[in-house]
Amino acid sequence: MDKEKSPSEKFVLEFKEDAALTEMMRLRVSSLQKSGQKRQDGERLLLPYEVVSRLDFPVQELNFSHWYFSLSGHGRVTITGISQHWTPDLTHLMTRQLLEPIGTFWRNADDPEDLPLKCLEADMQEFGERIAELAKVRKVMYFLLAFKEGAEAANLSCSIEFLPEK
């Protein structure tokens, strides 16, 4: 007899900005600019409209269920996963560490506020499944969130729902 999943069995994890890592990556960009040096081959520098966020996984055996995102106003937000557990104070972020696909959602300037956000559903599904796979081998995962076309971090709420593996 199948037991219906109770709400308590769901894990809804919110993307939380990691201000310390974001600042450290901004300092790297600033340091390179001041010294006139170039980035290392393959190094991925933080762009002015990006922040570093993280997900902390309470358990490792998860299945992706659903994305929740809301954005006041208009704009485009992209979420890029980072495949390796890195720390900018010890190692630089390399482009090869960025996951495909990326998650993208947006609202056009002429769309009414009550219109649901648009997204690339197949990519968002695959991205959520990829995050669940990586959760099996780590307790925290980092992401680059990019805010474009008028989107701002203060206007974003983004979380992801997982169900435990049975």
UniProtKB/TrEMBL annotation:
Pfam families: Olfactory_mark (PF06554). This is Olfactory marker protein. Gene3D superfamilies: Olfactory marker. InterPro entries: Olfactory_marker, Olfactory_marker_sf. One of its GO terms (biological process) is sensory perception of smell. It comes from Nothobranchius furzeri.
